[in-house]
Amino acid sequence: MSGPNSGSRLPGEISAWRTPVSPDRNIKQEPDDLDERYPRVHPEVRREVRPEIHPRLEVRPEVRPKVQGRSPNQGELPVSSSADVEAKPTPPVRVDNSDSTAPPHISTFPNLHHATITASVDSLGKYKETGLIVLEEILSKLSRVTDSRDAIGYADTIHDLKEQAQNPKTILGVVGSTGHGKSSLINALLGETRLVPTNCVQACTAVITEISWNDSDDPGRRYVAKIEFISAAEWLHELEILFADISASPSEASGNFSNGDSDAGIAWAKVKAVYPGITRDQLVLTSAMALSNDAAVHEYLGSTQTVYGSEAASFYKQVEVYIDSLQRGPAAENAEGHGPRGGEQKMQFWPLVKVVRIHTKADALSTGAVIVDLPGVEDSNAARAAIAAKYIEKCSGIWVLAAITRAINDKAAHQLLGQSFKQQLNYDGNYSRVTFICSKTDDITLNEAAEFLGLRSELDALQSKSAAIQRWEENSEQQLKNDENRSSSLSSYIRELERQVSQWEKLETRHRKGEVVRAAQIRPKKRKAPTQSSRATKRLKASDRDVSAYVSASAFWDSLAIGMPQFSENDPLNGEQIGQAIDYLRTTKDNAYDEKEKLDDKIENERDNSEALKEDYTKTQSDLLSSCIRKRNEYARNAMRRDFAQGLRELDHENAQRENPGEFDPETDLRDYNKVAQSLEVFCVSSKAYQGLSGRQGRRNAAVEGFDDLEATEIPQLIAHAKQLTEEGRTKGDKSFLNRLLQILNSLYMWCSTQYAELEFSDEEKSIELSRMKDGLMKLDKDLKLSLRIFVRNSKEVLTKHLFSRLETSVEKAIADAPTIAGSWPQQERGDGRLPFHSYKSACKRSGVYAGKLGKRDFNEDLVRPLKCDLAQKWVDAFQQNIPKALAEFTHASERLLRDFHCRVKDRVQKKASFRTINALQSQVGARALGITHMVNSFSNDITALQREASRKFNSAVMKYMAETYSACAELSGRGCFARMQQRMLDDIETDAKSIFKSSTEPVKTDLTRLCQLLQTGLEAKIAALLDGMNQDYTSVILGQHFTGPSKQARDELLDLLKKVDERFQHVPADRGHKDNLNSINQPIVDLAITPR
Question: Cβ of 623: how many Cβ atoms within 10 Å?
Fold first, then answer.
């Protein structure tokens, strides 16, 4: 902590203690858009390295009297007279404190101290929130201290710390080919039906989409999108290439663009989308410059359009206008290039969009993850390709996505990554940060999958149950229908019997009253005229297969008439006759009831049997489908892991053979590849099933065949994985924040409390001790800078003696392989996978880079690959082992020097100062020692970022040198031009190979040398800030503080606050959060540096 010390110095006190920092070491950074949002250099370095903070001050020698028999320098290191970089730091002299009567050290803020070293990532976040509240309260108190510059210094430090409290961004790049479900996956991760823009038709664009957390609490800005357009210069360059593609083929130039997948077809689609009114005839008469200056288009170039939304559906429609194609292919226009009649065509924006940045509140993003949907290999837009490369460079994790049907093939991981991509991952130190995602696990053919996965017996059981259903349908289904018909007929028959009984009972009542009744008074059942089909059903006897003998109520009534007592319709009926009729009808009705009851029981049993068969079949089928999905997932997971480990093994052996051919043994494994395989994160997901079960594709919790719950889709586990990937950065950032907070609180505590410390020093003793402390700080400054120079020297030695020296051999390798590589680019015969004339020429127009229907080809990358392969082992050793080791040694040396300085001061003052004061100093030195580790960690991140950037300079340098050759080849035309192109390319490469590859190494060397300079400058600034804070603390202890008036009251209130503040960091519960969702699918990542540690 840096702060002035006004109001606490004695007359004649030495005003400075440290050696100056040279201002010429402040190296300016050239920020770009991505660097401003994700800076590669620690912000404190940029802020603190300022000449005015570290002026050169003279230190006057002073004669110090002896005090209490102690020499002025007793217990101190002698001041070195030389700062020779080759010298080692003076061995520290540890003071024996065994006779000290002071009690053991107790931290001033024990809860906060404990939080900085032991808390979980979730608790750390809560501690940080508490710390920010505390800082606000402290600022309020400090604002009332008006008579001390120290208060201003503390306030500035607190403001600086608050600026660094944001969660660090963890960039996760998602790569994968079109059609494998990237957009669907990202929408599922975001918990939205449709939020991520879909790309336009064919393979003519691939918009880069960055999705991050939205901090806004405004309901109207629940969703925010920023659409960034390419610049006017970039669009002009793109148009020139599109014009060249369109005119490359005579047939296509004449108007044949029916093949939308051809280079010319894609080029025409882009031009037509932006300029919908243009025809092919008009295109011939205009120029790229004229089109680029079109006012309607020029309005958007270089701009950023912002879209806000409160709900996803309307928000997506607003964004879709900028990135989606409204015309669906060549059929939208006629042969002359005119659009459909009857409506005005609108300009489309997708060819002009560089990147879309979406901000939303999704759980997967809540901890700082930034998901970037990177384009596939089809995008030929140079601006988008450059931004995609920048994202890859800054990625903390790479997610490689492929449909599971491809992932289960042999060598899937090897094919998905590609040789150049794997090589760059190795350079970046990101090989262990790759996550594979197998998508579309719901896309499965049951029979084929069961056979493949060894589930033949389960499949046989399912087929057996299917056969049982078929047999039931053949044998019992028709009978069930007949029984149902008979039951229905019986119901009608019973109703008719009841009606007849009722009529006869009425006759009986009338007869008893003395009335004359006749059979003619009974109304017969009305009969419908029979149809041909109904006549057939009136048969009394059914077929032998039918159990029922009757199939209709009419047939029942016909049979009733046969057994019914017969009476003359006109003769009066007596009581006996009426009774006979009623008894017969009642008996018949009872019999019909009994028959129907038995028949209904039989029908119910048959239905139950049918439903049981079908339910059993459905359950068995669902279980088998679930088993197939799970087993295929595990098969794919194991295949990906096995192939990934094998690819790393091949890379290890390739590097080992280059490094020491005589000692290389292919039978000896350089690491545990089984452990490597198990450490690879692989998720097999179904976005469709997850969305369905989440209620975003219809009814909530809708059943999705083969998936019992959300966990089976593995989307929740992938969300948890995304959050887990942020833990390392969050933990480091939060612990660094809490450590700096602890240092501020310790320093403020000493600053406020020393007025009550009752120091036993006389004014003369204070002057002497202050002088000694200043001399000690100067000595500490020199020793720390000496350790720093040793670290920088060792780092330079790693670069020069190991890395740069190997470059010579690597260049020779690249020179030798270059002609063969150049000869592999042009097509020699149809179907050989190489570039035909038009594609080869298109690559030359694009500085050696082709992206189209044949995939991506990069001539520059091809040429530099032998160099990078030969250099890979040295590069990895340097930046993943040797330099980190040297940085760790510097850290340990710095911590030791810091503690030794404190021990010497403590030995002198502890008998004069209170235990509380000494304890506060002891607590502070521990916090500062830990702060050195956090400081070095921040520079480790800078080293990683800068070396990644440097490793990409090989390709860009080759591209720059080859620009003239590419241009010359692109200009060739006429008969035999393809052969002349190839010869010109080969001649230039053979002639200039040495210069090409020598030039490619220069920017790399420059960047890496600059890295060492930047480290030295930044660490020197950190050391100066550290010693400023120490000077402040020890001066406060030695001299004490004396305040009056309002400032004294404000400090007293601040001291009261500090005495109570530690209670707030007590018992903060750890939130397990997403860890509860992360099951045992994947194991912890292991270190995948090329050389085993």
Answer: 15
Give CA–CA dist 707/1081, Å, rounded: 17
Q: What is the pLDDT of residues 1000-1043, one digit of tens each?
A: 999 999 999 998 989 899 999 999 999 999 998 888 888 776 66
Helix (H, G, I), strand (E, B) or coil at 369: strand
Residue-wise pLDDT tens digits, 116-144: 887 788 889 999 999 999 999 999 999 88
* CA dihedral of residues 984, 986, 988, 989 (deg, nearest 10): 160
Among the listed ranges 205-214, 982-991, 1001-1010, which one has the minimum average pLDDT value? Answer: 205-214
- pLDDT for 205 beyond 80: no
Q: Is 518 helix (H, G, I), strand (E, B) or coil?
A: strand
Query: 308 has which bridge partners?
Result: 224
Is residue 199 exposed (0-12), middle (13-18) or buried (19+ Cβ within 10 Å)?
buried
CA distance 10 to 8: 7
Determine the pLDDT at residue 940.
86
Angle at which helices 110-118 and 915-951 pack, to 10 degrees? 20
Residues 6+ apart with CB under 8 A from 250: none
For the record, the structure tokens of 29 come out as 């950074």
Q: Phi/psi of residue 924, each to 5°?
A: -70, -40
pLDDT, residue 1083, reads 40
Q: Which residues contact 559 (CB under 8 A, 6 or more apart)?
A: 540, 550
Structure tokens at 329: 């292919």
Whether 934 contacts 739, CB under 8 Å: yes
Residues 823, 824, 829, 835, Cα dihedral to 10°: -110
Query: Which element (helix H / strand E) includes 278?
Result: none
End-to-end Cα spacing for the chain: 36
CA distance 241 to 267: 8
The whole-angstrom separation of Cα 890 and Cα 896 is 10
C-alpha 907/C-alpha 864 separation (Å) is 61
Q: Which residues pair with 175 in a beta bridge?
A: 400
Amino acid at 444: I
Annotate 522-559 with DSSP letters as a single string.
Answer: SPPPP-PPPPHHHHHHT-SS--TT-S-S--SHHHHHHH
Tokens 């020069």, located at residue: 800
Angle 1023-1029-1031 from CA coordinates, rounded to 5°: 100
pLDDT digits (tens, 9 = 90+) for 354-401: 899 999 999 999 999 999 988 754 455 667 777 777 888 888 888 988
Compute the distance between CA of residue 1057 and CA of residue 1053 in angstroms, rounded to an integer: 6
68 contact partners, CB below 8 Å, separation of at least 6: none
Q: How many CB atoms lie within 10 A of CB 40?
A: 19
Residue among 770, 848, 667, 705 at smallest CA distance from 1037: 770
Please, are residues 25 and 1013 in contact by the beta-carbon 8 Å criterion?
yes
**Half-sphere exposure of residue 394: CA atoms within 13 angstroms, side-chain side:** 25
pLDDT higher than threshold 70 for residue 335: no
Of the given ranges (20-24, 690-694, 790-794, 908-912), which has the lowest mean pLDDT?
20-24
Most confident of 119-128, 710-719, 803-812: 710-719
- Is residue 31's pLDDT more than 60? no
Contact between 883 and 950 under an 8 Å Cβ cutoff? The reply is no
- 3-state secondary structure string, 897-957? HHHHHHHHHHHHHCCCCCHHHHHHHHHHHHHHHHHHHHHHHHHHHHHHHHHHHHHCHHHHH
Dihedral angle over CA of 106, 108, 110, 113, nearest 10: -110
What pTM value is reported for the model?
0.78
